[in-house]
Structures are given as C-alpha cells and as structure tokens.
Amino acid sequence: MIARINGWKTIDWSGIVVGRSDPASWWMGVAANNTLTYVWNNNSALTWNWQGAPEIPENKWALVAIAIEPDKATSYIYHRDSDKLDAEVNDIPHIEQTVVNLKFGWDECCGARYFKGLIDEVMIYDWTLNADDLKRLATVGLPVESKGKLAITWAALKRD
Question: What is the CATH number of the domain that holds 118?
C-alpha cells in the first residue's frame, strides 16, 4: 500500500488508508508516536503497536508505504524535501489477508480518526515493492498509458 500525503492527524491513530473487515482489518496511518504504522495479522497488537516505524513529517509532502511479506513488514517514508527514504522493518510473521472496504483519510473505528490534509496517488500492488522501487515511484513517478492521451508522469507534473 502506497500513498502520497501532505497533512497531519486529527487525533492519534488517524487513518490514511483503511480497510476494516474484522477480523482481517487493514490500516495504514499515524500512530500515537507519530510514526507510519499498520494493522495486519487479524488486528494483532504486534502490528499496530509496533514502535519502530519511521516518523511521518507534519504538513510536508511525503510518499508513505507499507510492504507486507510473509516474514516481515517494512514501513517506508520518502521525504520529498530532503530526497531521503527512511525504512524500518517489523520482523514478525505475516499471514495472507485480503484488503477490502477501503476508505481514504479516515478510520470508522474509535472516534474521529481523520487525516487532515491531502492524500494522493494511492497505489495497491499484488507484489511487494522494495526500497529501489519506492524511490523510483517517489522521484520519477508512475508513467501513464499514453494511448489516446498526453504521455506524462505524475511526479514530474507535481513538481511544476
């Protein structure tokens, strides 16, 4: 799961991209310690209470991503201002889950868990991207199919 963001949480645990379908919930958002964290493994505290994720920049453009693999999850934040990619690994087993019922910028659980700001270019892949893939997406962008329309890349367009 990948998204470009620029904003901040309204309260702790504000959702960026959320799919609640208990018990197999998916959640990517701002944890109480201002880091990019996630919910997986049927809402396991070993995911949402993980304290090692990188810190989200407040009110600055960043590309955020959670990459789930069977033996780990990696939390990535690309800081546009400094051209730096932070990554931290949660080294626990992860079960296979389906992401459904997606909501962007809010979590219907537990009060006003809204992300206040902009969320752009949400991407879901059916394979795991690595640091090089994410850096390329953050800096070069994702080419748009040019058949019948102007060929551009979103990252280049956003810089103008």
Answer: 2.60.120
